[in-house]
Amino acid sequence: MTAVLNNGVGFYWVEDYLNEIRKCGGQLELPCINTSDHPNSIIGTKIYLGFGMIKDLEARRIEKLLTQRQLYGRFTSLEDFVERVHLGLEQLVLLIRIGALRLTGNDRKELLWQVHLLINPKTAYDVPRLFSTKSVAYQLPNFKSTGIENAYDEIELLEFHLCSRFDLLEAELPRSIMVREVQDHIGQTISICGVMVTAKRVPLDGGRTMYFGTFLDREGVFFDTVHFPDSVAHSFMSGKEVYQVIGKVTQEYELCSIIVDRVIRLTRKTDPRFSDASDFKRVVG
User: Fold this and answer.
1) Top-level CATH class of 2-145?
2) Which of 31, 81, 87, 170 has the fewest beta carbons under 10 Å from its own?
3) pTM, entire model
């Protein structure tokens, strides 16, 4: 799966391949300045996302970072990284927002403040220093990033996030069953929640449309759905979101599928940093 990610994935979304990695026992890690490479890499059971996946991070900056680490060893602090690798403020901000400097143990918001204090864009030069200078330790407020903020940063910079889409829902899940329970409800109408993987559109006579869908439940298990024209007419599916699927369970050749009556899209939380301004409400991902 890591090789698939390194080759630009395939038919499915990146998240679907990440789900398969988790099911195989892999532990996914965000890029790290002391561990990651340009491509995604495997260390034991951990898969470290590569710097090449970070949007707008320049290849020559990645090369400079990796060269410094290979020649002079691992980075020990934000100050050590800034002094050794002259990336520029904008490139450093990208690494901080994606969590690549978590070795410091500081919150991402605190690191953003610190890096602005360390780097003056007007006087920063891309040349090595003869002597190390000790930076002034400023007393900063207690900053704390939230999981939802980090998830939206990951969506912006990676075009996916590592947390579950179920963790981003605005309200609690409606009462529903899991895929492992479907076998016990053959012939019954059920409610099940899942993330849409794909929906194949099938045009019919008279301009009508039906779909064959595939979803992932909260445990990362696939289930199949059939959406006849009457269901499609009053259901709304718009991309890779979490949906409540209501329908009747059928079985054929020991395989279960759901004949859908209705599909309801479950609302995702907005980025709290922009929730007070409707013009900046994010609907990415």
Assistant:
1) mainly alpha
2) 170
3) 0.83
